[in-house]
Fold these 4 entries.
Entry 1:
Amino acid sequence: MSTRVARDRVTGTPFTRGLGIVTILGIVWLVIFGLFVTPADVNQGETVRIMYAHVPGAWLAYLAFIVTALSSAMYLWRRTRSLTWDRIAGASAEIGVLFMGISLVTGSLWGRLTWGTFWTWDARLTTTAFLFVTYIGYLAVRGLGGTHHQRARRSAVLALLAVLEIPLVHFSVEIWNSLHQEASVAGNTDVTMDGLMLFTLFLGVIVFTLMYVWMLLHRQRALTLEDMLDDSGLDRALAARRAEAGVS
Amino acid sequence: MKDAGFIIASYVVTFASIGLFSFAVLRRSRAAGRDIRPEDRPWS
């Protein structure tokens, strides 16, 4: 029984379990407020409810990719070089791709209702899709062969280049003529949103951030276990070759 | 609610994706952790 419990909580700790419970309660709260409690928008009507999933998703993707870049920089800096930073970078990029995908799909559904089309080659949409594809490429590069440090070095360099796309995506609505609206809250000193809508939007950002921390801890620990398995597999293979060659 | 299909679909896509990803992460960690003793895990 105790073995089963230990196996079921491989990457879990009391902190992650507590965090998971708080996050699930937050999701329930967000869904209730997003779908039923907040008012409809004056201009967009009920379709504004998609915002409570779409905007936090985009925020999370940016956060995850920035964490990937910072962790990569920590790995490349000799004083802090550790594979833990590399695993945090990889785990964060996976989560970022997930949330960027969510943001693209929910944005597409919202676009169909407000613009009449699921997709258009608008500046914001195109740069976002480019960012999404870039990080899929980053994950593919992480999957190439080599030692853990070779993986860490090449993916860290790529992460530091890829993060430069984020300002391009964020400011694309200001640089080019775009169908996509400018930021409603971030960097806007004149927020005209209804109080309850603004509260629910912030609730979404907080809940998604808690979710991110939970996912990051678990995924980073899973990557640590996978690396440990790789290393032990290599040790076993070397021992087998030595035994074959009669070397003690 | 007008446009309920699109609105509900956006919530389903969001939380189903998050749920599936979380499930996959836990499953992979369980598979990897099977051969690693609990005392060798840095966080336990």
Note: The interface with chain B takes residues 6-8, 10-11, 13, 27, 31, 34-35, 45-47, 49-50, 53-54, 57, 95, 98, 101-102, 105-106, 109-110, 112-113, 211, 214-215, 218-219, 221-222, 224-226, 228-229, 232 of chain A (CB under 8 Å).
Entry 2:
Amino acid sequence: MREKIIIGLAVFAGALLAWNMNTIFTKLPDELNQGAIYRIIYFHVPANILGMSGFGLGMLFSIGYLVTKDLRYDALAASVTEVSLVFASIGLATGSIWARIIWGVWWAWDYRLTSWLVCWLIFGGYLMLRRAVDEPNQRARFAAVVSILGSVNAYISYKSIEWWTTQHPQPVLSIRNGGGMAAGMEAPIWWNVLALACFSIILVMVRMRQESFAREIDTLRRMAHAQ
Amino acid sequence: MLLGLGAAWLIMFIYVVLITLRERKLRKELDRVRRMVEHPNK
């Protein structure tokens, strides 16, 4: 059943992405000031949306673990956070390339970029912490605390472009009352969010299976030592 | 623009390769530990 869901999601996401890429590259006009380069937004924004919302989701699963002590919540939190970190990396890399072309620099230490980099480092540390602690419950507890702290930072990063003046543009999407894009130009962002969300669900499902393998290995090892 | 697109797909590709390698390693380890538990004297 799991395999069928993964294949179904992959086919749907692949078809949606192909159709949307065709729209982005052949049907949409260049942006007035930036020219063709503005199309990076169709990967930069969806990747960061998935990164930020994934960190938030990971925090909810971490709280679920702290409340119930059920290690399945911890496995979900670890899987979602790892995949979200990949999307956050894509967001940082595409943002940096975009900045180099439009601002003339690879990086600016403004509130948005700095807080998002700090967030990336916190969740990178989260994954390193998980490798460093062997005892499952202790690992889950420590990781949950880091996840909550990191998610607070992710929220600060999300709001930073409203709270402070930054080199990074202010909100442009209509759901944040930005109004900076024409309707036809904004829709492909959301289609890409949907397609990449399907890919991220596939990756989380694969990671969850790996977490269950790891738990089984751990249990069998304990049994072997007890024999 | 192509550099940005390439970077996005490269990061995703590297992660998919890493996750695939990890899956293979875990399956091998699971088989090994299962054999160890089923036949402890081998």
Note: Chain B has one domain: 1-37.
Entry 3:
Amino acid sequence: MAMNLLYHQSPIRLEEELRIIEKAKINPVHFGPLYSRYHETIFRYIFRRIDDIEAAYDITSQVFVKAIGALPKFEYRGVPFSSWLFRIAKSELYQFFRDSKARRTVSIDSVRIAEVMDEFLDDHSENDRERLLKVLPLLKEDQLQLIEMRFFEKRSFREIGEITGLTENNAKVKTFRALIKLKQLFNKK
Amino acid sequence: MIKILVDRQEPNAEIIRSRQDFKGVLKSYEQQRKLFHNPWFFGVVGFSCLILSLLVLLPI
């Protein structure tokens, strides 16, 4: 699994980031380096869940507006700053879905579909792939999120846990259950 | 209903970077902060709440 360098930071970089956060708490102008560092990551997270690129840019901006406003309440407790931003992004995204009636989107690469299929079958065809794409929307939203983060975005269980507010172990168990549910739906179709 | 998009083209890092606008973000933050710190905002909200409470609590 590819390592997310923004997530797995070196102690020096983490210390530097915490220093910037403390400065930005006093004056939001100092938030600039954090904005530059995480803008693309947050944008991609939103873009993959919405079929409107301009809306994705707008929501990304709103995430950072909210983050600056909430920054005085941020306390580092071992959870990376990026996870805190992802949580704000998730909340803004669902607010957007409620306000605009836009459709929730799941963006998947063919390679990733094949990897999920490998979990179900030793040998799979184009038909199986279509079947999987049909049953994916039948999952509950929280289960879909776990499958999305683990298999389509290749996040570690620790990162998934920190974004969703679960423990690492709980994230692992719930993702496994979501995969079983997906398999059941797949076999029924 | 959920929409599934397979092999969707994502904008490259350069394009995304060109859309960064930290000044715009700061401006929006300042505007929102001013709104919530404006006594008129809470005056209107407070007055509306008072009227609503009176309408609900008082028998017509």
Note: Residues 25 and 72 of chain A are 5 Å apart (CA to CA).
Entry 4:
Amino acid sequence: MEGHLLNIYGAIFLAISWSIVIGLNIYSFYKIFQNNKKED
Amino acid sequence: MIKREYWNTRLGLILAVAGNAIGLGNFLRFPVQAADNGGGAFMIPYMISLLIIGIPLLLVEWALGRYGSKIGHGTAPAVFDSLWKSKIAKYIGILGVIIPLVVVVYYTYIESWTLIYSTFSLLGLTPSTPVSENPQHYLEPFKNFLVSIIGANSQSSLFLSVPFYTYLFFVVTLLLNLYILYRGVSGGIEKVARFALPAIFVMAIILMIRVFTLSSPDGRNFLDGLGFLWNPDFSALLNPNVWLAAAGQVFFTLSVGFGAILTYASYIKPKDDIALNAVAGASVNEFAEIILGGSIAITASVVFFGIAATSQIASDGAFNLGFMALPAIFANIPFGQFFSFLWFLLLFFAGITSSIALAQPAIAFLEDELGLKRQKAVLILGVFLFISAHIPIFIKGALDELDFWVGTFGLVVFALLEAVIFFWLYDSKKAWEEVTRDNDINLPSIFYYLMKYVAPLILIIILTSWSVQMLPEKMSQHNVNIWIARGFIIFMIVLSIILVKIAWERRKNGRAST
């Protein structure tokens, strides 16, 4: 079988990258939501 | 003076800007670039590039756009002319109208291929062959299918023999784009973004779940695919080309240097935020790229074909992955027709939200600088796009030539000009004030140095490196096909210079908007 299973380093890079992206989305939309509430 | 439009809602604006950035590149170019350039290790230069070049250049373009809102003009010629008191400023600015316009000429055509594939998948008209041992043999009917759609099987050295249905799908795609533009910024672009962006995410998540549940008869599963993309090769970090590839990918994915963000940002109110909007738009784009784009095409290909064959498919070009490998996979899984339809509909939505953004600077030019009403502006644009598109549709090699000069080189040149004019030729202190005023988040002062020094320097390095690597080969090509494409670009430059001259003459005489 020709395989190349995700190793621990790959998993760490995937987890960090996904976390940064998800974190950025949560941060920016939380800030927008907060500002919208302030304006209301 | 024609009353300028504004975005209806902030969410609509962010989705429209994200829709501009999310394109075929997120789902096809990114995974190929990452797999080719060190896997997980690629993310180190990628994230660094995002921070030191991507976000700063985004902010520059957003700030130029908001400045445009203040002066009532959403085009680069007017913004450059207002910032830099030089006679040539407005002529340099025309790049911010020509670049996106020429890209639309061929991008709309590529977009129509995704509509063809999507419709044909639904109707069961895509190839269907039993799996063979050799992936190259298996992929052959799918390759022939793509070749027949674009008419690349023609015997002529000059013309492609495009079938009637391809032409018809292109016309439908073009009309759809024009209709959205005709409906205006809030009534067309924003409404489409509010529907298309969530649809893209839903479709991508369904496809991601399907890919993660795929397995091959010899035991490969999605962890092999993710391993291929994410297992790091740290030695790649010592290769300068990997860093250049990461900077290039960040640059392309954020869609900076097109002039489209400048125009979109000119439809916010003059005292609205830009910093948080820019970060939010980029975040949505990165979600589509890193999480969704990195989990579908290449993961599925590794599960189905294995690593060696996927490397071969990817090295032949990202398009082969999306237009040959993926349909080939879907042809052999249960409900494959439906997943193939979904995949290409996703690409179509990603494409159309980008093409309407790229067409808007031309509409803004006709409205803001020449004082035309939107209906007339869309009609003129439609006639121009219809006629011009015959070059990439029928002339062999024209699409690649236009993409090289305008969609690759031109973007970097224009992004560099934006940063230099704003932070060097205008006034760096005033430029920084313009970027940081009225924002909902505070920008750290390091961004001043990134915008003024670091980002332009990296753009110069990218341009120099590409010039050394690619220009000698490009400049040695002299066949008729290539010169038709180059002639079209030259014609566009001359035409734009004349139009800018007319617009500014009229402005001087007080006959157009000021």
Note: Chain B has a mean pLDDT of 94.
